[in-house]
């Protein structure tokens, strides 16, 4: 068992590794060209590709350092840009200082001519140098301080408002929801504590406000740093840490929007389809719709099976539209989960399939008295995975449906030919008693027993001729299989009474010799017989009344359930929004 599980786990790991490895090989086959941006003073100018002996990142960083060193070397606001021929391509210079060398491969990658590429990139370099010097003038620094002062006033105002709301909003919501929380607490018998819910809501609201305060402080620091050219790179780093994930998330959400529309349409279509399906089965239960041969106890199990099939189909249909469903990691995890489920769900699947067969092959219905293996009792509920029976000792027994399918099921309540269940018991009587007398006494005992039918009539079989006694078997039909122990017990009591009153000694199960006197209890007096008869009649009447009351309550419960399903749901009342009338 352990080696088998180990082999399955190794196979699963190999499949996952194969899936991930395939993704890596595919990524290597479609490698992105070596590119790097030229960033000056926190601004991206253009992108350079790598050369054979010079990677793109190193090439871009050298160009950016050269531009920044030249821009910081002077405060002249205007510069001149020139493009000069070079043996390898075109050289861009600013005020006679070389800044950048472009080759034919750069132009081929951008799909433009080399002269056009040199002109565009040269203008960008010139503009970057002029902006670098303009942002470091005394006037620019004064403007930065003014902006910082204005932003500081707004920052103090926003923080003050958030702090006030952080204190006021939880109290306001608590006053508004106090009555509703009290009703929830009363409805749940104080299992759900209204005070605990209110404290949780207040904590979550305060947590949200503190998060807003921290975000406000974070962006205020970024804005202050962004107001000065010297600290702008640090501001860009701070803003990028939060903005890039947010922008990526928004981009992913926008890309997911068509799939979200499709999933929403599938959701609402499935919802209304399930509502229509439930309405159909409710009408079948109410008798509005009728299908020949469709049993009443099949209604809701059939509904649940059809609903499960619809939901499974919807999951398969929706899978391609789930975010990340096409990624290699998601597919690898799906393979692993599928293997784990297949390893651990053998008994679940077998019980579920067995439940379908048990339900529809009519071997047992709810209310039947059955015997499965060593267990016997009344069927209380048949579910997809297991069947519940209530034993004769009022014990609730759960039997897996796989056992129901693979074992012999004895149904005491089924009426195959309409006559009912055959109740029987055997007694041994000595050879000195006439056969006709014994058979008449047994038939009399059967006639006195409740729930044994008069038609077909009870009959007696001579099952064996023993060494010391003849074995007689009394047989009678009954349609009350649920009362089988009581019927057999009452039949035994009537046999004893009839035989003892007629002086017949029962010799089974063992016989050692004829005693001096027959082992027969004294015959009761007529008064005692009459009293016992009255008590038996009263017990029968009480039992009949109890059965009638139980049937009446069951019918009322069934009618109430049907009425509850058929009753339309109340529409929510529209609340009028406006000022409350003044009182007093």
TrEMBL record:
Keywords: Cell inner membrane, Cell membrane, Ion channel, Ion transport, Membrane, Signal, Transmembrane, Transmembrane helix, Transport. Residues 1-27 form the signal peptide. Residues 530-559 have a biased composition (Basic and acidic residues). InterPro entries: LSM_dom_sf, MS_channel_C, MscS_archaea/bacteria_type, MscS_beta-dom_sf, MscS_channel_2nd, MscS_channel_C_sf. Residues 510-584 are annotated as: Disordered. Gene3D superfamilies: 2.30.30.60, 3.30.70.100. The keyword Membrane applies. Coiled coil: none annotated. It is found in: Cell inner membrane; Cell membrane. The chain crosses the membrane at residues 145-165, 203-228, 256-274, 298-321, 333-360. It is a multi-pass membrane protein. Belongs to the MscS (TC 1.A.23) family. Mechanosensitive channel that participates in the regulation of osmotic pressure changes within the cell, opening in response to stretch forces in the membrane lipid bilayer, without the need for other proteins. Contributes to normal resistance to hypoosmotic shock. Forms an ion channel of 1.0 nanosiemens conductance with a slight preference for anions. This is Small-conductance mechanosensitive channel. It comes from Pseudoruegeria aquimaris.
């Amino acid at each position: 068992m352990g080696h088998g599980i180990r082999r399955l786990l190794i196979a699963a790991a190999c499949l996952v590794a194969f899936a991930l490895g395939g993704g890596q090989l595919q990524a290597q086959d479609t490698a992105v060209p070596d590119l790097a941006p030229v960033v000056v003073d926190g601004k991206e100018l253009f992108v350079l590709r790598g050369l054979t002996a010079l990677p793109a990142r190193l090439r871009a960083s050298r160009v950016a350092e050269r531009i920044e060193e030249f821009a910081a070397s002077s405060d002249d606001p205007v510069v001149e840009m020139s493009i000069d021929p070079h043996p390898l391509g075109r050289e861009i210079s600013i005020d006679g200082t070389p800044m950048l060398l472009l080759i034919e491969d750069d132009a081929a990658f951008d799909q433009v001519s080399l002269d056009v590429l040199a002109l565009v990139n040269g203008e960008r370099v010139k503009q970057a140098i002029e902006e670098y010097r303009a942002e470091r003038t005394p006037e620019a620094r004064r403007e930065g301080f003014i902006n910082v002062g204005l932003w500081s006033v707004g920052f103090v105002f926003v923080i003050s408002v958030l702090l006030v709301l952080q204190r006021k909003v939880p109290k306001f919501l608590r006053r508004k929801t106090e009555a509703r929380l009290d009703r929830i607490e009363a409805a749940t018998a104080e299992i759900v504590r209204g005070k605990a819910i209110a404290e949780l809501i207040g904590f979550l609201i305060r947590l949200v406000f503190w998060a807003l305060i921290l975000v406000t402080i974070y962006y205020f620091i970024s804005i202050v740093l962004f107001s000065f050219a010297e600290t702008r790179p640090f501001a860009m780093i701070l803003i990028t840490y939060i903005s890039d994930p947010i922008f990526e998330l928004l981009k992913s959400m926008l890309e997911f929007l068509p799939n979200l529309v499709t999933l929403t349409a599938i959701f609402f279509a499935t919802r209304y389809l399930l509502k229509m399906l439930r309405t159909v089965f409710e009408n079948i239960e109410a008798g509005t719709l009728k299908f020949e041969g469709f049993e009443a106890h099949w209604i809701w199990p059939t509904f649940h099976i059809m609903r499960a099939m619809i939901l499974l189909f919807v999951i398969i249909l929706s899978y391609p539209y789930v975010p990340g469903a096409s990624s290699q990691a998601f597919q690898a995890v799906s393979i692993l989960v599928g293997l784990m489920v297949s390893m651990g769900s053998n008994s679940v699947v077998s019980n579920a399939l067995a439940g379908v067969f048990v339900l529809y092959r009519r071997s047992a219905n709810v209310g039947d008295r059955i015997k499965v293996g060593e267990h016997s009792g009344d069927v209380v509920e048949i579910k997809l995975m297991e069947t519940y029976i209530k034993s004769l000792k009022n014990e609730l027994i759960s039997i897996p449906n796989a056992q129901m399918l693979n074992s012999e099921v004895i149904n005491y309540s089924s009426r195959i030919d309409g006559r009912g269940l055959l109740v029987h018991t055997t007694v041994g009587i000595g050879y000195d008693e006439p056969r006709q007398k014994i058979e008449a006494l047994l038939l009399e005992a059967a006639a006195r027993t409740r729930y044994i039918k008069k038609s077909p009539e009870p009959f007696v079989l001579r099952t064996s001729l023993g060494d010391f006694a003849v074995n007689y078997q009394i047989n009678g039909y009954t349609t009350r299989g649920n009362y089988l122990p009581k019927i057999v017990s009452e039949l035994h009591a009537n046999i004893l009474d009839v035989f003892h009153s007629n002086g017949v000694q029962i010799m089974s199960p063992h016989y050692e010799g004829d005693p001096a006197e027959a082992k027969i209890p004294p015959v009761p007096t007529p008064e005692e017989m009459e009293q016992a008869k009255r008590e038996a009649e009263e017990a029968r009447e009480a039992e009949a009344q109890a059965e009638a009351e139980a049937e009446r309550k069951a019918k009322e419960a069934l009618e109430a359930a049907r009425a509850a399903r058929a009753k339309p749901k109340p529409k929510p009342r529209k609340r009028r929004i406006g000022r409350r009338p003044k009182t007093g």
